[in-house]
């Protein structure tokens, strides 16, 4: 069913009485999906549904009302309460698109939502934060070395 939806990024399926495990497995065919909502469905009562989706869809950044954390993706990882899954820091707002009057406004709002979701994911991922800090340190070190070389070259002249 989802094979033809290669560019789908948001899928809101909450409150739809979805009860079959096969319906969850079908979501793994979505290569670009970023956010899925399934809350208030009987399938959510199946033990391990969140773990299955988080680890089966690599591009998924949010499930239900929460950002997916590194702790959820990495077995036995613990980064402290701040980066724990399903806490208040990871909660996101699902917008109501029913009040939009035009397709252009809807597309603009979707682009804004994609941007916000990516930034929230980045700010709440310890591995991405560490990478960012490391790139900053390396960039400042290279800049200092280049400044020193430029100063030495200027003094020679």
Notes on the structure:
Helices cover 45% and strands 6% of the residues. With 157 residues, it is α/β, with parallel strands linked by helices. It has one domain (10-124). Strands 1-2-3-4 form a four-stranded mixed beta sheet. The longest helix is centred in the last third of the chain and has 31 residues, at 126-156. The termini are far apart.
Brief digest:
By secondary structure, the protein is α/β, with parallel strands linked by helices. The chain contains 5 helices and 4 strands; from the N terminus they run E-H-E-H-E-E-H-H-H. The chain has helices at residues 21-26, 49-56, 70-73, 103-123, 126-156, and strands at residues 10-12, 35-37, 62-63, 66-67.
Ends apart, CA distance between termini: 70 Å
Overall mean pLDDT: 84
Helix content: 40-55%
Overall spatial form: elongated
Unreliable residue runs: none
N-to-C SSE series?
EHEHEEHHH
Q: Number of helical runs? A: 5
User: What is the strand tally?
Assistant: 4
Strand order of the largest sheet: 1-2-3-4
Secondary-structure class:
alpha/beta
Keywords:
5 helices; four-stranded mixed beta sheet; alpha/beta; 157 residues
Topology:
Blueprint: E1 10-12, H1 21-26, E2 35-37, H2 49-56, E3 62-63, E4 66-67, H3 70-73, H4 103-123, H5 126-156
């Amino acid at each position: 069913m989802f094979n033809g939806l290669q560019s789908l990024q948001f899928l809101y399926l909450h409150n739809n009485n979805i009860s079959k495990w096969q319906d969850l497995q079908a979501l793994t065919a979505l290569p670009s999906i970023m956010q899925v909502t399934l809350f208030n469905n009987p399938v959510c009562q199946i033990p391990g549904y969140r773990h299955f989706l988080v680890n089966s869809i690599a591009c998924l950044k949010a499930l239900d009302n929460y950002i997916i954390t590194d702790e959820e993706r990495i077995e036995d990882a613990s980064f402290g309460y701040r980066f724990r899954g399903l806490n208040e820091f990871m909660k996101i707002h699902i917008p109501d698109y029913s009040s939009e009057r035009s397709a252009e406004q809807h597309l603009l709002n979707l682009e804004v939502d994609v941007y916000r979701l990516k930034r929230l994911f980045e700010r709440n991922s310890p591995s991405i934060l560490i990478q960012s800090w490391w790139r900053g340190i390396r960039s400042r070190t290279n800049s200092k070395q280049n400044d020193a070389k430029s100063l030495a070259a200027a003094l020679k002249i």
